[in-house]
Amino acid sequence: MNYPKIIALLSLTVLSAGLKCRNEDPPPAFPPVTQTGAGTFACKVDGKEWVAHLNFLGGGRPPEAIFIGGRLNINANRPMDSGGQKFYLMLDSVGTTGRYLTSFGSNPLPHIAGWYSPGKSSRSTFVTDSLHRGHITISRLDTAARIVAGTFEFEVGTSVTTDSGTVVAGPVTHQVTEGRFDLTFD
């Protein structure tokens, strides 16, 4: 018998079956609003569900929150097989729960912002600014249990600042609604 050929054939069969299963995995369910550190991030972009997730072969990483010195950054993405899309929520000064309006600060970066990248299908990024607004609500900020949870809604778009300093909206916007996150932080 030719054992190397049989082993190679069996290996290819098992590998292709594994890849076929990966492609048939259902997308993750749209999670409920929770405050337990469940590790979830989801929203609707232009009415379509967007759930952060990762998978073994498609890449990605779980959503994460970083809270240092009152600054909160939340990063969420979907793997390359979902387009490599990303979301960032940034709040420069968070001390308690509450509703924070997205704004365009006097420094080069917004004080409170939402940022969305549609991934490989687009080279554009879309942000909140003085023309594209919304809010991020922190419903739990527990520094002992290291949990942050909340909701968000905003419009993101492209903007251009003219030579005279006027901010002009770009042609494309996205509506981000029913956003929710429930994460632990380092």
Can you put this structure into words, describing what you see?
This protein has 186 residues and is mainly beta. The chain has one domain (31-184). It is 12% helix and 44% strand. It has 1 helix and 11 strands. The longest helix has 22 residues, at 3-24. The protein starts with a helix and ends with a strand.
Main sheet specs: 6 strands, antiparallel
Radius of gyration computed on alpha carbons: 20 Å
Mean pLDDT: 79
Q: Determine the N-to-C terminus distance.
A: 57 Å
Structural class: mainly beta
Strand order, largest beta sheet: 2-1-11-10-9-6
Number of helical regions? 1
Low-confidence stretches: 8-24
Shape: globular
Strand content: 35-45%
Total domains: 1
Helices and strands, in N-to-C order? Answer: HEEEEEEEEEEE
The count of DSSP E runs of length 2 or more, i.e. the number of strands, is 11
Helical residue percent band:
10-25%
Secondary-structure blueprint of this entry?
Blueprint lengths: L2 H22 L15 E6 L2 E4 L12 E5 L2 E7 L8 E6 L6 E4 L10 E6 L8 E2 L6 E9 L4 E15 L5 E18 L2
Antiparallel strand pairs: 1-2, 1-11, 3-4, 4-5, 5-7, 6-9, 7-8, 9-10, 10-11
What's this, in brief?
The chain has 186 residues and is mainly beta. Helices cover 12% and strands 44% of the residues. It has one domain.
Question: What characteristics describe this protein?
Answer:
44% strand, 6-stranded antiparallel β-sheet, 186 residues, single chain, 11 strands, globular, mainly beta, 12% helix, 5-stranded antiparallel β-sheet
